[in-house]
C-alpha cells in the first residue's frame, strides 16, 4: 500500500480512521494507521486537552482532526446564529412531539444538572477558534465534511504546513473542493455511517478519481476489511477513510447498549435519516428513526435546529438506556451498512492487522488469477 497519500500522511498504511474517541485515534496511529479525531461540538479548552493527550500517547506518529463546517445551514449567511436565536426558531409543536415520544417510551427524566445548555451552533467564530487550537498542535491533516472547507481554513492550514481534506458524495462536490484548494479528496459513498449522499462507493470512487486527478482520493463508505481496501485501490483510490468499523472496538467509548445493537445488526438495519442533525445521516434504525419517519409526526427541522431540539432528549435516552426498555428501543447512533460485518469486539490493533493481512492475501490471490 505504498501510495502517494501514504507518504503525504506519513503513516505506515494509507488507512485513515475517523473517530470521536481519542483512545481510538491514538490506537490507530500507534498501529500504523492514521487516526483522525472528530472535533465537532468540542469546546476549545477541551480540544486542547484531548490533542495533548493524543500526542503524548502517539509520540511522533501522525494524526489529524476533522471539523464539521457545513456550507449551508440555518443562519449560514450570517456566519451562524447564537444559541438563543436558534432556540427561538424551534416550533412548540416539535418540542411537544419530542417530549411525548420520550413519555410514550417511558424514558426516565434526568436530574437538571445533567441537562446541557450548549450544543454546536456552527458559528464561524467558534469554528475558527477550534481550528486555531488544532493548528497549534502537531496535526498532519484537517478534514471537513458537508461542503468545501472555507477559504480561511485552507489558508491557515497551509500556512502551518497542514494538509486539508474534504469529504465528497458527488464528483461535482469533489471538483469544487479541489478548486477551493484541498490536498486530498475523501470520496464517501452512500453506505457510509454519518452524513452521506446518494451514490454508492463502487460508483463514486472512480468518478471522483477521474474528476480530480492528479489530486489523490481516499475511498470511504463500507470499508472495514482488507478485501474492501484492495477493492478501493483497484478503483483508483490511494487509500481508505473509515469510520463505522471502530465503533465496536475495545477502545471505543460507544454506549454499551448501542455497541450490543451494532454487534447484532445486519447490513439492512441502517437508515439515512434527518432525525439526529437535520441533514441526511446514516444510522442504526430504531424506534427514534421510525417515529421521525412517520408522516403523522412533525418532520425533522433543518440543521442546526434539530441538533438543539433533541440534545437533552438524547442525554435522557442515553442515561436511561441501561434501565428502561423504552430508552433501549429508542437509542441508536451513526453507523454505516458495514455494521453487518461488525460481529465481535476486537482491539484497534487487531482490526488493523487483520485488514493488512487480508489485503495481502487478496493481492496474492489476484496475482495468481492474473497468471492463469
Ligand atoms: C459515528 C460517526 C460519526 C461521524 N461523524 C462525522 C463528522 O463529524 N465529520 C465527518 O467528516 N465525518 C463523520 N462521519 C463519517 C466518517 O468520517 C466516514 O466518512 C464514514 O464513517 C466512512 O464510512 P463507514 O462508516 O462505512 O466506514 C461519521 C461517521 C460515523 C460512523
Features:
alpha/beta, eight-stranded parallel beta barrel, three-stranded antiparallel beta sheet, 11 strands, binds flavin mononucleotide
List the helices and strands and how they pair.
Layout (H helix, E strand, L loop, with lengths): L3 H6 L5 E5 L2 H9 L3 E5 L5 H15 L4 E6 L14 H6 L3 H13 L19 H12 L5 E5 L5 H9 L3 E6 L2 H10 L3 E5 L5 E2 L5 H12 L4 E4 L5 H9 L4 E4 L13 H9 L5 E4 L7 E4 L2 H7 L11 H16 L4 H6 L17 H24 L1
Helix pairs in contact: 2-3, 3-6, 5-13, 8-9, 10-15
The chain binds flavin mononucleotide (FMN).
Briefly say what this structure is:
The chain is of the alpha/beta class. The protein has helices at 4-9, 22-30, 44-58, 83-88, 92-104, 124-135, 151-159, 171-180, 201-212, 226-234, 256-264, 287-293, 305-320, 325-330, 348-371, and strands at 15-19, 34-38, 63-68, 141-145, 163-168, 184-188, 194-195, 217-220, 239-242, 270-273, 281-284.
